[in-house]
Amino acid sequence: QTSLIPSHPQSLFTNDGLNDLHDLTEKLWEGPRVTKVESMANFTDVLAIDDDAEALPFYETPVQLSNDELNKLKKRALNHPILPGAFISRDGSAAHIIIKLDDLRAGEVTYKESAKYVHDLLKQMEKKGYKTYTVGAAVLIDELKTVGEMDSVKIIPILFLLMGLMIFILIRKVHAIGLIFTLITITNLTVIGIAGWLGIQLN
Description:
With 203 residues, the protein is α+β, with helices and mostly antiparallel strands. 51% of the residues lie in helices and 13% in strands. The chain has 5 helices and 6 strands, in the order βαβββαβαβαα. A hairpin with a 2-residue loop joins strand 3 (44-49) and strand 4. The longest helix is centred in the last third of the chain and has 35 residues, at 137-171. The chain is elongated. The relative contact order is 0.14.
């Protein structure tokens, strides 16, 4: 589950803010691995009309309301038993979108495509002046993997350089350094090869 919070500079409850929330919700449905998207934009409210109960969208789109109508909608949302704290902040300045993804398939370790799709959409929202935040296991796993890969690109060459320097200081023979690194490389490749042959996955 991934949560997104697009925060309007002044208030979520403006015509632009409500329309942007609806558009973002609809676009998130199109993301890879997405099975469900929940927000105030597609929240169904049950209203008592005469003697019947009718399920209606919390607000109709496109939103073209007067200031008085927007204030009434905001007041209804903030006094709603479910929306505050779940789909909007308690002051009505931010929206909370919940994205549910299907389970990872065999051999998959991250939701890389889904995370990239969400991040690209949020960049578009930020260009409009919104602040965006993401939380949840899917995003966290992808971020940790991305950071780990970036660190590996920087750290591994430095590590080998320091190892070579230390070996040179201790042995003071260039060919010995080459033999040691050759041994290390062969050992690592052998371990990786055996692990692949046995079907052991290395993260």
